[in-house]
Design goal:
Radius of gyration: 20 Å
CATH superfamily of one domain: NAD(P)-binding Rossmann-like Domain
Strand content: 15-25%
EC number: 1.1.1.271
Distance between the termini: 44 Å
Largest sheet: 6 strands, parallel
Structural class: alpha/beta
CATH architecture of one domain: 3-Layer(aba) Sandwich
Oligomer: single chain
Strand order of the largest sheet: 4-3-5-6-7-12
Protein name: GDP-L-fucose synthase
Family: Belongs to the NAD(P)-dependent epimerase/dehydratase family. Fucose synthase subfamily.
Number of helices: 11
Order of helices and strands: EEHEHEHEHHEHEEHEEEHEEHEHH
CATH topology of one domain: Rossmann fold
Number of strands: 14
Keywords: Isomerase, NADP, Oxidoreductase
Helix content: 40-55%
GO molecular function: GDP-L-fucose synthase activity; isomerase activity
Shape: globular
Length: about 350
């Protein structure tokens, strides 16, 4: 691999020229036979978070759990995955055959801007510990979760899976973005050197039940839901950071959960796959705010504080690859997903993360 150093404002990043890996049929056949042989124990890191709860819901409540499977959902109370010793201990305890790796240090855009270095270092440790321990303990397959923020800031649209390393990510969350990008590099390394079938998924702007709804720590959709409900309860205006012009592809967590289980069982590439609604469903932050206000029956004033950055104005992604593999999958319409999430938030307000 060719490595060079590029300037990134006041710091330096590593730019890595990656190449396309050709899948080897013999290794694909080996993975399929390994998957079918013996008991299957699936360990889900980040099991108490929004996506972990979504995977748990679809596996346990929608009939996706197969006979003979054991599913273990870890939270940070079970192990601090930044610590290699604790990571090894929890793998030794549960002895997984498969891993869905969702654990990460995450936050809202302004939290990332304040603390990029910590997001980089914590996530590098988590990801390296999980993948190294999975390899050392003979885990058959790992599906790790990336993020749409990993894509270059300066890029042509729509974005697809081949563009991850084609430039620098947006400056607002460079730490988190680079840590997530390196999972793809690690997956390629484990495949090239050891034949490991470790892969990753790239969901876009996920929202849904069990998310963090704190205005400073949440993803944009959930932060807006939390702020709007609070404004309704207090009889005050709701203030939206930025102009509302930024556009996003919002995807319901339960849909992503269903697709992650499909990836674990059916998707054999090492290279990532984007899990998202289609380009035709892209909406502005302003559109999302209006849908939230309707779902929560908020009648108050909506203000836009233009002193705050909008972040990346677009992150439009292509789901051509997903459609090629899974043409029949139907996503929940965003308005319906917002209503469902708002209803869950109101019903669980006292226990929700706010």
């Amino acid at each position: 691999m060719l490595c060079s150093q590029l300037p990134y404002k006041n710091h330096t990043v590593l730019a890595i020229s990656v190449y396309q890996l050709k899948e080897q049929p013999a290794q694909i056949e080996k993975m399929e036979s390994d998957t079918k042989a013996g008991p299957v124990r699936v360990l889900v890191t980040g099991g108490s978070g929004m996506l972990g709860k979504a995977v748990e819901h679809v596996v346990m409540n929608e009939g996706l759990k197969r006979e003979g499977e054991e599913w273990i959902f870890l939270s940070s109370k079970d192990a601090d995955l930044r610590d290699l010793g604790q990571t090894k201990a929890v793998f030794e305890k549960h002895r997984p055959t498969h891993v869905i790796h969702l654990a990460a240090k995450v936050g809202g855009i302004y939290e990332h801007m304040r603390d990029n270095l910590l997001f980089l270092s914590d996530n590098l440790r988590i990801n390296d510990n999980v993948l190294q321990t999975a390899h050392d303990t003979g885990v058959t397959k790992v599906v790790s979760c990336l993020s749409s923020c990993i894509f270059p800031d300066k890029i042509t649209y729509p974005i697809d899976e081949t563009m991850i390393h084609n430039g620098l990510p947006h400056d607002s969350n460079f730490g988190y973005s680079h840590a997530k990008r390196l999972i793809d590099i690690q997956n390629r390394g484990y495949f090239e050197q050891y034949g490991r079938r470790y892969t990753s998924v790239i969901p876009t702007n996920v929202f849904g039940p069990h998310d963090n709804f704190n205005k400073d720590k949440a993803h944009v959709m959930s932060a807006l839901i939390g702020k709007t409900y609070k404004a309704k309860m207090e009889g005050t205006p709701v203030t939206v950071c930025g102009t509302g012009a930024a556009r996003r592809l919002f995807t319901l967590s339960w849909d992503v959960g269903r697709l992650i289980v499909w990836v674990l069982r059916e998707y054999d590439e090492i290279q990532p796959i984007i899990l998202s609604v289609g380009e035709e469903d892209e909406i502005s932050i302003k559109d999302a705010v209006e849908m939230i206000a309707e779902a929560l029956d908020f009648k108050g004033e909506i203000k836009y504080d233009t002193s705050f950055s909008d972040g990346q104005l677009r992150k439009t992604t292509s789901i051509a690859k997903l459609r090629r593999y899974h043409p029949d999958f139907t996503f929940t319409p965003v308005k319906e997903g917002i209503k469902m999430t708002c209803d869950w938030f109101v019903a669980n307000y006292n226990s929700a993360r706010i």
